[in-house]
Amino acid sequence: MRGTATGKLVKGLALAAGIALGAGPERPVWADNLTDAFIGAYNTSGLLEQNRALLRAADEDVAIALSALRPIINWTVQISRDYTRTSTGDFATTNEPSNFFSGLTLSQLIYDGGASVLGKQSAQETVLSTRQSLIDIEQQILFRAATAYLSVLLQEETVQIRQNNVELSSEELRASQDRFEVGEVTRTDVALSESQLASSRADLADARGDLSTAQAEYVNAVGKQPGRTAGQPRLPNLPRSVGEAQNLARRNHPAILSAQHQVRAFDLLVQQQRAGLGPNVSLNADAGITESFDNDNSINDATVSLNFNQPIYAGGGLAAAVRRAMATRDASRANLLNVQKDITQGVTDAYVRYETASASLTASIERVRASQVAFDGIREEATLGARTTLDVLAAQQDLLDAQLAEIASRTERSLAAYQLLQAQGLLTAERLGLAVQIYDPTLYYNLVKKAPSQVSKQSRDLDRVLKALRRD
Q1: Do 335 and 209 have their domain in common?
Q2: 439-454 pLDDT, tens digit each
Q3: Which of 327, 269, 332, 282 is nearest to 117 (CA)?
Q4: Backbone dihedral region of 100: left (phi > 0), alpha (psi from -120 to 50 degrees) or beta?
Q5: Number of domains in the chain
Q6: Are residues 97 and 173 in the same domain?
Q7: pLDDT of residue 10
Q8: Which of 238, 278, 339 minimizes the C-alpha distance to 111?
Q9: What separation in angstroms does the CA of 385 have from each of 50, 184, 257, 340?
Q10: CA 432/CA 430 separation, integer angstroms
């Protein structure tokens, strides 16, 4: 009777082990892979759209700075009333004429020590800095998509393994009950089996909850519900050493490039503020008609003037503006040093994480192999009555735990590989070769950099671009 009960248990365990080792329903032909997640995140990210709009705002700052170098023409309507009192000896006369002026006024900067040109150059450096910030945001969006995809994949595999645990625990409970009925075990063995089944079900419920959480994050990061995952992604090409990775990051990482452009922008602002301490020359002109409300007189007149201004005293505000610009520039230089150190450390951390994950995966694979051998041996010993039911189930649980550890290590290695790409500044849609419409930051800039007027063809082209952006 003992051999019969044990044989039934081993057959059940063998069937469940087959499920644990990969048997199960076939997956459909279609499946979501990591590239799909990247594409979805790139096409639907609101954060990317937000920062693209901020870049367009920086583009417009160049046009605004350029406009300071151009003439300003206004149509002016002015109603005035003058009060004049003239005294001659004992006589005084009062004159209060009312006038109406309508005409054009023009103002053209002639010389300001180069301040306006420096302002334009500073705005251009800010545009370049903002472009690099946009690339850094793009990296964050794509890495979040990678994390979301790998998390869903990991939790799906975890649910599958936990489900196998439930199946194993159910088999063990039925076997324990059968053996209890023939007097081979005590009620304690049955209670242990019942406890193991309840624990397996609780673990399965937790795993399903974690899967739901991972799927919700996937929707947020990618913009759609995940389909069946296509498995672990192929690892990207990675550097052969941490030094190579660091050198590449120093040359290419958008955070470093953005900080460098910021430093140059603030250097130019310091020069602009200093230029503002010098003289300013402008040409002013107006032409129009002046009519008097007191009579029917009408005057057509025009005036042209050349104005020269040199600040003498402004309450200390001008000098304070220069010192403020210098302090801001110094802060940007310190920020550049911090960014460079942070990026270097980030590359080191990511490289070590990848190396550690690779070593852990190698050990996990060996653990699965050893656990498989141990399970097969204990299972054979159980058929001969040399092992108990709990020995077999414990060995099977060790095998399942080893498989779970292997999946976690493989996921960790993939995540570390893409983190290393991001740390080097290489996790972009263009470098990954994604099948998306790559956002071109120069398109809008080229339309606005010459500050087109509202009535120009270029302005109409801008209107169409903005309309298309709003529709998207």
Answers
A1: yes
A2: 999 988 988 888 776 6
A3: 269
A4: beta
A5: 2
A6: no
A7: 38
A8: 278
A9: 69, 12, 70, 66
A10: 5
* Tokens of residue 199, six digits: 């624990």
Range 435-458 burial, b when 16+ CB lie within 10 A, else e: eeeebebeebbebbbebbeeeeee
CA angle 358, 363, 369 (to 5 degrees): 130
pLDDT tens per residue across span 51-89? 999 999 999 999 999 999 999 999 988 887 777 777 666
Asked if residue 139 and residue 195 are part of one domain, the reply reads yes
Q: Residues near 111 by Cβ (< 8 Å), separated by ≥ 6?
A: 279, 280, 281
| Cα separations in angstroms, 36 against 26, 40, 154 | 21, 6, 17
Terminal Cα distance for the chain, rounded:
74
Look at the block and give the residue holding tokens 């041996």.
377
Query: Looking at the structure, do residues 23 and 105 belong to the same domain, yes or no?
Result: no
Q: Which residue has the tokens 């209107």?
A: 463
Q: Are strands 280-292 and 98-111 parallel, antiparallel or unpaired?
A: antiparallel
CB-based contact 419:39 (threshold 8 Å) = no
Which segments within 254-297 are labelled E, that is strand?
Answer: 280-292
Two tokens, residue 309: 């201004």
Task: Determine contact, residues 325/273, Cβ cutoff 8 Å.
Answer: yes
- Whether residue 291 is contained in a domain is answered as yes
